Amino acid sequence: MKIAAAQTLVSKDVIENGATIRHILSEAASQRVELVNFCEGALSGYSKSQISDPKDWASFDWEEQKAELRSIAELCGQLKIGAVVGGAHQLSTTLRPHNSLYVFSASGDLITRYDKRFLSNSEVNEWYTPGTEPVVFEVNGFRFGCALCIETQFPEVFIEYERLGVDAVLFGSYGIPAYFQIALRAHAGLNCLWISAATPAQEAPNGPAGIVGPD
Hints:
Elements: E1 3-5, H1 14-30, E2 35-37, H2 47-50, H3 62-79, E3 82-89, E4 98-104, E5 110-115, H4 121-127, E6 136-139, E7 142-148, H5 155-163, E8 168-172, H6 178-191, E9 194-198, E10 210-212
Parallel strand pairs: 1-2, 2-3, 7-8, 8-9
Antiparallel strand pairs: 3-4, 4-5, 6-7, 9-10
């Protein structure tokens, strides 16, 4: 199975981000890629970089993001390619959103959504509501799990996916510093997992996107 870890320029503009994601999907499909994973906040923007104040969630255009998600799903169906796309997920007007990965099938369906469970101190106190469950889905007979950013620092995330019979973990982060890279390689080797890691283009010089084998 051919998968790709994307490096896209992530901005404050959801429409611009959506167009970038669709461009990458078209390019990947032309190379016979079957599944592309994008970074944390690839569509919505990542809070601490694109959203200057937590109160800005109140003015975030959720309908605009929903429209972009629909367009991405439609293109996945047209191109017969799967996608895992980072974006915020609205809970209510009073609760902070989840930091999520939206999983689209090659038929254009939303298969599932992963909500980041382990948050940094600033995220949990100011930006996001943590998720509660791991996510496992299948593509072409292979089982995939999802993880985000600081979850590299929690071995239990990857141990749990190994116990759930996952073949690969699709990881998205707003930056992959050196110690994240070391951790991802360790988790892959210790748990016999493939790990695909996506990051924004503007952070790639400090740690590029890549794919780690179980060796």
